[in-house]
Amino acid sequence: MNIAFIISDYNYHGGAQKTATIGEYLQSQGHKVDIIVIRCRGGDSEKKKRPKHFSNVLDLNATSFFSGIFSLIKIFRHSQYDAYISIGPYSNISAGLAKFFCPGTVVLIGSENFAISPLIGDYQKLYFRLLGPLFRLSYNQLNGLLFVTERLRLEFLNKNSWHPSRCITIYNPVKFSKKNFKQKKKKNNNSGLTFLGVGILEKRKRFDLLIRAFSKVANNKDKLLIAGEGSLENELKKLVNRLGLESQVNFLGYNSDIESLMKRSDILVHTSNSEAFGMVLAEGLATGMQVVSTNSFSGPAEILGNGRYGFLAEVDNLDSIIAALKLAIRSPKSQEIIFEGVLKFSVKSIADKYVKFISAVIANKGHLNEAL
Predict the structure, then answer these.
(1) Where are the beta strands (DSSP E) in the chain?
(2) Residue 268 and which of 140, 234, 279, 287 are 20 to 30 A apart at CA?
(3) pLDDT tens digits for 38-78?
(4) For residue range 83-99, what is the model confidence (pLDDT) as tens digits?
């Protein structure tokens, strides 16, 4: 098959990482795969943060929402692909509206990887809620829709009259090796533990709770590494200073090799109050880490097997996060259990599900409200 993924930005975020991993595997199996990038807001500096393992990229360099749609219309009218898969709401809307202006020309499958959307009525910004009709118009052009968790899928189906057969759950893939688990040895707490937080330094990630929780459970030999960039970096550094943790907390900025960082850390801590999937949680399991996460909507509970493969805490609850961290330190999950948890994210099984669904949609080009 000839497949094109459409993505708003191709950088270090979870949607881009999963797209690169799937694209790389599909191409290795004889499929032709390209990634169409609608915009590149950071220019050359943004391109340096792109996934290194897949680079078949067509940059549209759209300077506005409408110029992106216009560029996609031209691609659709002279299509050379069997199917297009748009990644995330921005791409779904852009590709859906482009198809609206050239109906019946292409097979278009959307993917939903945001935990908030006007289509489930929980978007806080009035501007986006008013865009509800535009979302519905564009999503009505889709021939299928992928979800990164089953909980997210059920929430969307509850709020929209789509046929369940055209809306399926396929998790994001992660690469892993059994040897990672053999090499991961339990560390003596007396030598100090390394805690790790990964993500953009923005409000919904609640890194302030991570730092406060660390201050309550850490001994003076423990370290906290924070990998990521964002507008709250200075504010978080001031919090570290107020808590007297300057010698124990390190802000690493953007890091292109999270896997290596995870391999030399002990406990991954994720304190977000909203996470459609939570790619970093699956990546943590894939390196044999102990994983602690808030049970936010919608991914952490599914990734961590409702607590079988990691430790869940209540959202925005410092005491609950502290309790989960203490449990991870005192009673860590075995490497065998963690390996069991990561198996469902294998690249081969995830990519095979993509191919099966794409093939079914190509054979039956109906809309979301029609049975597949």
Answers:
(1) 2-7, 32-37, 57-59, 83-87, 108-112, 144-147, 167-169, 194-198, 223-227, 249-253, 267-270, 290-294, 311-313
(2) 234
(3) 987 766 666 777 888 888 999 999 999 999 999 999 999 99
(4) 999 999 999 999 999 99
